[in-house]
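Database export, one record per block. Field names are fixed; values are copied verbatim from the stored entry.
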Amino acid sequence: MNRVVKINTLLTDSNSEKIEALCIWINENSASVIGWEQLSKQSGLSHAELIKIFQLYKHQTPMAYVRQVREQKKNASPANPQHPLFLQKDNLANSKD
């Protein structure tokens, strides 16, 4: 019962807004060095609070989220031949034959 009360006190509109704002910031700054100090400063939460609250809302740690965003951007980069832009270009070249 005590755990449920703790979780409910962390699930607030304010914390939700902080996590969403942090996720936007991470997406915009994913090419930069992002460490715990930057995450805490940006969110206004301590390291421990950040881990607990982020996991409640995003079901992963903040650093796992940073890695996920970086991986998604890497896979979507034009240097990737599987990127839709390359696939469209190849399809256009094949349709001219």
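Remark 1: The two ends are 69 Å apart (CA to CA).
Remark 2: Residues 74 and 80 are 8 Å apart (CA to CA).
End of record.
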